[in-house]
Structure formats: structure tokens, C-alpha cells
Amino acid sequence: MFKEARIKLTAWYLVIIMAISLSFSVAIFLNVNREFIRVDNMQRSRQARVDTISNFLVQEGIPVPPDSQPQDSESIEEARLRIIWALGFINLSILVISGVGGYLLAGLTLDPISKMVKGQKEFIGNASHELRTPLTSLKTEIEVALRDKEMTVGEARELLKSNLEDVNGMQRLSNYLLNLNRYEKGEGINLTDVDLKSVVIETVENTANFAASKNIKIRTDVKDVRVKGNKDALIELTTILLDNAIKYSGKSKIVEIRVKSGGILEVQDHGMGISTEDLTHIFDRFYRSDKSRGTDGYGLGLSIAKSITDLHKGRIEVISKEGKGSTFRVHLQ
After folding, report:
1. Mean pLDDT of 233-240
2. To the nearest 10°, the Cα dihedral for 54, 58, 60, 61?
3. The whole model's pTM is what?
4. Can you say whether residue 121 is alpha, beta or left, with left for phi > 0 and alpha for psi between -120 and 50 degrees?
5. Do 305 and 204 sit in the same domain of this protein?
6. CATH code assigned at 168
7. Which pLDDT value is given to residue 204?
8. Spatial separation of the C-alpha atoms in residues 276 and 148, rounded to whole Å
């Protein structure tokens, strides 16, 4: 599809460029030809005067000076032909150069669209896969239960509990997808003056139960720093980074979160760390490293974090070493 579109776009580039080039060539030729005609008329007029004087001198027996004799000159037709050939060569060169350049330019023009379409296809495929897993589990459990005529009330309750977990998983995934789409488009996101300290304090309070369930202690070192942003979005960003730090803290039982001058937010763990190979993909949608396969999640959290950071015209970076832990640093304005 994109190859055909690239060829068509190149053809349109060529049509436009050659139309402009040929128009200029015609204009140049007409102006040069008009000048040729003017010079030719002047030469003819001059030659006629010279001939008249020469004839008069000959009749009077006066020798005619050599300089007054008619001299050979390049014909106007030959000059015209040379101009036509020169313009033709120039237009042919423009055609070849613009053809190559147009093809490359068409490729550069379509490349972002191609990547976007490819990303959408991968996104739809991954989302379908993630939804298919709980749906298949849900369907299988219900079908088995329907065939079991001796199911007790206790077994039915356990089945409903399991089904509810699957439904909750699908709900979380749909919320992730909706949030990712909302932050990427920036819909309904108003930026105001936000205190990062209050964002961190609220996030830590919201995450306290989860940290306690993992026996993780959260250390905070926050300053009063105000940035331009959306408080709800920044809380979600901080929650994602803090949840990840808790999940991957490993044997270490400490997670640190800091707010520094200049609008810098840092979340640090001392766990398994991230490999160099995985570092280049951690913000990709649905990407999960081999080490993270055993933990809950869909591989969308960091994608949402990156989208929130981009929405705030900020920058997010990761410093990590395997076995030593990771530090996520967000620069806000």
C-alpha cells in the first residue's frame, strides 16, 4: 500500500516540479528569442546603412575600408537551436534529479504515517490478545460450570470470584487503553499551577496499602516545587512509577521518591534493574521484558507515563543497572 502511495506521490512531485520548470523554460526562451529578434533587426538595419555607404563610395571611386565590409555573424536560428538544446538538457536533468529526490522525499513524508499505521496494527493486535486471554478463561470456566450438574453453592461462589477477577482484569485493561488514548490526544487536560510535593504526598498515601502488602517502605524527600501541569495526570504518572518500583524492588524493601528543584521528580528502587536491551523498549506499548513476565500488568503503564510526560512538554529518562535497581527521572517545566 505504502509503496504504491510513494510512487504516486513521487509522480505528483514530478508533475508539479516539471510544470514549474517548463513554464520557466518557455518564459526564458520567449524573452531570449525576443532579444534575438531585436538584435537581428538592429544588425539588419546597420548592415543596410553600411551597404548604402559602401555602394556610394564604390560609385565615387573611393576605396572601401575593410572594416566596412559585411562580416560573418552567427545565425539567429543556430543560436535559437542551441538555447533549445540547453533548456532541454536542463529540464531533463531536473526531471532525473527531482525524480530521485521526489522518491526519497515521498519516503520521508510517508514514513511517520507508515509507522503510525504499523503501531496501530500492533496496538490492536496486542490489545486483542490481552483481552482474548481473560475472555477465553471466563468462557471456559462458565462452560465447565454449566456442564457440572452437581456444583455446590461454595463452588459456584469460587467460580464467580474467579470470573470477577477476569472481569476486573479486562476493566483495568480497558481503563489503561482509554487513559493512554486520552493522554496521547490531550483531550480534556487543562494545565494549571501544581505543587509537586502535594502530588507525591497524595500518591504515597494512595499506594500505602500496596506497598504494605509487599512489605516495602517508601522514603520521601520532597521540596516545595511548583510546575505547570495537570494534577490528576501527574498523580497517575507518579503512581505508575511508584507501583513499578514496588513491583520490581526485589529483595530490597526500600523505594525512594524525590522532588528536586527545577521540576525534577525521581522514583528509585534497588531491585533487579533493567537490561540495556530492554531499556530501548520499556516505553513501547505492551512491551514486557522476560524478567517482568511473572508480575501483574499489561505493559502499558510506562507508555502512559511517557504520554503524560510528553503532554506536559517534559522529558523522562531511566538510569538502571542490572542487579542494582532503576531510577526514573521526570523533568517538568
Report:
1. 92
2. 130
3. 0.62
4. alpha
5. yes
6. 1.10.287.130
7. 92
8. 51
